[in-house]
Amino acid sequence: MFQTVWVSSPGNWSLRVSNCHCDGKQMIGKCGFLRSIIQCPRLRHDPKGPRKARMLKKIQICLCFFFVSGILYEISLLSGCFSYMPMSKHFLTPEQVLSLGKSIIFLETTERLEPPPLVSCSVESAARIYQDRPVILFMKGLTNDTALEMNSSYAAFTLLSSMKNVFIFPLQMETVFQETPLLQWYNQVDPEQEKNWVHVSSDASRLALIWKYGGIYMDTDVISIRPIPEESFLAAQKSQFSSNGIFGFPAHHKFIWDCMENFVLKYNGNIWGNQGPFLMTRMLKAICNLTDFKGTEDHSCQNISFLNPQRFYPIPYPAWSRYYKVWDKSPNFNHSYALHLWNFMNHNRKAVVAGSNTLAEKLYKAYCPTTYEDLIQSAELRDFT
Question: So where does this one cross the membrane (predicted)?
Fold first, then answer.
């Protein structure tokens, strides 16, 4: 429930929503941000055309209503003043959503249009943990002409589209790389000659998106379990080695710009990870004196938090298959914000199976229950019948 109070004043208006107060110039209060608001001036009296004046006034009221609806939507995303997601979310552009600066960003750089269950789980878990932030899945196979409606035959697409703070947009790389050092590289590279293009293009796209708009990037095999409290952070995969599978920065952060420049300068698409975790590691080492982690403490350098491997990688990649085994006692992951399930190591060989009692199945049940119910249990029932 929320209350909206309108207070009229000449040539202006005032709006109060919960603890957020908006006047004709700016928004103040717990929302913690400022935004210019359109003014809706009163219609001047037209003595010669009262019918025309009434009609124009109705049009004006409608226009103001639609504009304010958009403002209320942005308030609901950015501040969490109230849990309300109008249908207008389906008409917003990527720039409008990303400009809020708090997005959780996922990328699908293959051509597939049906996200597998692990991708669906990653996006759903983020949407549940970060309910006050937009969660965006960019898909390369999706175009502006692709008609995927709510009744689509793509079950995971329909499932994710129905979540109030999840957005699915086409990944248009040339647009993403505009006004970054990566554009020249993109225009010169030949994807057909790149053996690691799916990964390299993803490495580049995540850097450009975070630099332009800020927020958190996550791989599509990362299950969120609690909010990340840091704004500028890298995730240590192990001591003195950074992952690029999850990181977060505000918009236009110098570290990300430097990473994009180094991406181009040291580009070698034949070496897996050269543009990804190795890039992040060498750039971090250039500005910080990295030391080994002791215990579960985090490190900090140049106002960048270098988060302990326990935060995202409590199960290291050589032991990735443990996620798909039955544990006598499941770990609590008390020191973790999210869990990376190492799908690159898995190569889709192991999957979550209903009733298997594996660690991965328990994670699905706890953090992406809709994915588990709709994509795992339903599939099992269909196969059984």
Answer: 61-85
**Residue 101 and residue 251 in contact, taking contact as beta carbons nearer than 8 Å:** yes
Question: What is the Cα–Cα distance from 210 to 205, expressed in whole angstroms?
Answer: 9
Q: What are phi and psi of 132, to 5 degrees?
A: -95, 10
Angstrom distance (rounded) from CA 329 to CA 33 = 45
Taking phi first (over 0 means left), then psi (-120 to 50 degrees means alpha), and beta for anything else, what does residue 217 get?
beta
**3-class DSSP state for residue 284?**
helix
Say what the pLDDT of residue 36 is: 32
Can you say whether the dihedral through the CA atoms of 243, 245, 246, 247 is positive or negative? positive
How far, in Å, are 5, 131, 160, 168 from residue 78 at the CA level?
20, 10, 20, 18
90-322+335-347 fold: Spore Coat Polysaccharide Biosynthesis Protein SpsA; Chain A (3.90.550)
Q: What is the pLDDT of residue 50?
A: 59
* Separation between Cα atoms, residue 141 and residue 95, nearest integer Å: 19
pLDDT in tens, 218-236: 999 999 999 999 999 999 9
Side-chain half-sphere exposure of 349, counting CA atoms within 13 A = 9
Angle, in degrees to the nearest 10, between helices 254-265 and 277-287: 120
Three-state DSSP state, 308 = coil
List CB contacts of 139: < 8 A, sequence separation 6 or more: 108, 113, 115, 168, 169, 170, 171
Q: Domain locations in the chain?
A: 90-322+335-347
User: Can you tell me the distance from the alpha carbon of 233 to that of 237, in angstroms, rounded to the nearest whole number?
Assistant: 13
Query: What is the residue whose two structure tokens read 């332009």?
Result: 212
- Residue in 261, 258, 237, 262 with CA at minimum distance from that of residue 247: 237
- Computed over every residue of the chain, the mean pLDDT equals 82
Nearest one of 216, 211, 204 to 171, comparing CA atoms: 204
The pLDDT score that the predictor gives to residue 42 is 43
